[in-house]
Write a structure and sequence with these properties.
heterodimer, A: 136 residues, mainly alpha, 60% helix, globular, B: 316 residues, alpha/beta, Glutathione S-transferase Yfyf (Class Pi), Chain A, domain 2
Amino acid sequence: MRSLAAIEVDIDRFAPRADARAGARVLLELSEEVLEHWAAARGEAPTSEQKEGFRLLALHRQGARGVPSFNACRETCREIAYHYNLLTTDVDPSAAARTQRMMGMLAKHLLLFVSGKMQVEGLGEFCCASRPLRVE
Amino acid sequence: MSDTPVEDKKAKYQRVAYYPGCALEGTGHAYNRSTKAVGKALGLELDEVKNWNCCGAMEVKNIDPKIQTYLSSRVMSIAANEMHADVVMAPCNGCYHNLKKAEHDLAHDAGSREVVDRISQKAGHATYQAGQLETIHALDWIKQGVGEEELKKRVKNSLKGLKVANYYGCMYTRPRHIFPEKDRGPGSESTSQPHFMDDLLEAAGAENVDFALKTACCGGAHTLSDSDTSTKLVLNILRAAEAAGADVIATECPTCHSGLEMHQVRAETVLGQKTTVKMMYFTQLLGVALGLAPRKVGLHENVSDGIELLKSKGLE
């Protein structure tokens, strides 16, 4: 498994491809790699299953199990899936580069959110739907 | 409560109890000012909850969630039992979230009811009972208390030409189970694609851009424990808004708003990354559209100075 820093470098270096489908696949895989880290950090094997046609959404569901605050990246994952669909099912050539850039920013947001939670101990406990520290 | 017909909601939201919360007396003062000014301009009335207390923000629940439930229940008890209000409006996402969560916990958790009752008795006030009050956000108040058609009639200064990215943050819609009135089809708010702010600003003439990060985490709760992560999260939101073509990010939460403003400055000074998109509360934008002076809606209080931008669009 590559480091989160290496994944971040790839996201930052990503440039829209002439083949929008290929660009979308690259960004989706980078996003999946991010969530694999979260699952692995919790001592779990990252799922290979799919939810609604996306492994990314299955990985998110796996990551949110028992950690309600992880849902703060739920819509980010769903937006990544939506942008993937935009780029692979009905590509508007005039918008393809912009849509890839936006998908890249979504992937970056996912990485920042997940890496932030992993790097700072207890960080996730201060999110919106956190589990109480003292009571549980 | 969630099935109240539209016309009845208009009447019901005409005069509501107002819970500004701590942020609106501090960093979010401009939101307080503009919410009151817009409400007045639209003929809506606010009765501030007497002797209100902090809702516990994001911190108290990490010590003891039932104490947090009590703090919100006390605010609701005053509104319901002392002011005899049916509706309490909280413009801050954190307060709104906590009141909704307290409502949910009191309806579904006997342990929360027991703790809240015990502390309420000790504090010498009536115990809040689930269902006594409806908690709404400032977006509900204006969207359902006035509506787009009425708003359009009152616009004196159309926001035409102003490109807006509507940013809702993460607490307005999460967790979904504490917002049973959302996701109920046409007319209701969506937890995955919220649109009430988009609807209101469109009615005021603004051009809403397609903004993929409208509910993304701004890192607000991390800002003290890990400022760098917050700065990077905010920078990504600002860049996404600019990439979507926005002149302005419209906000409806004082924590998100001040986070976006402060980390925009920090991104430039610490990371050397400059962005130029401006932040304004949706109530400030509505106020300008209704013909209120910029000072009346507190635009001069924003760190992100949008007055020149509005002048350039002929909106002053």
